[in-house]
Write a structure and sequence with these properties.
Layout (H helix, E strand, L loop, with lengths): L2 H16 L6 H16 L26 H13 L32
């Protein structure tokens, strides 16, 4: 090992030893185990916040007493909407669409 390489190795070793994050393998494994246990621990039910929604309660559903009248009203509202006066433009980046009308036979080509 050259003198320069030995100095670099000594410098790196010294920097690692001074680092507050430097740990032995056993210390690192113990801190990982403790952190994992802390992250995976479930909080007790009493410590949950009151502002969290209660996801166990069912959602309110509208009660329809007369389904026939509801359906008639729905179709009246649905059919009262007027179709747009101008067709919507094609989406950006779409290719032009070609409509082929095959109702009229084409005359045969002359060779």
């Amino acid at each position: 090992m050259t003198d320069q390489a030995k100095q670099n190795t000594d410098l790196i070793t010294e920097m690692i030893a001074r680092s507050p994050a430097a740990q032995t393998r056993e210390q690192a494994l113990a801190s990982i185990k403790a952190r994992r246990a802390r992250l995976l621990a479930r909080p007790p039910v009493e410590s949950r916040h009151d502002d969290e929604p209660d996801l166990t309660r069912p959602e309110p559903m509208p009660i329809i007493d007369d389904p026939d009248a509801f359906a008639a009203g729905f179709w009246t509202r649905f059919n009262s909407k007027e179709p747009p006066s101008t067709p919507r433009p094609p989406p950006r980046g779409s290719k032009p669409r070609i409509v082929v009308d095959n109702t009229k036979p084409q005359p045969p080509r002359k060779r």
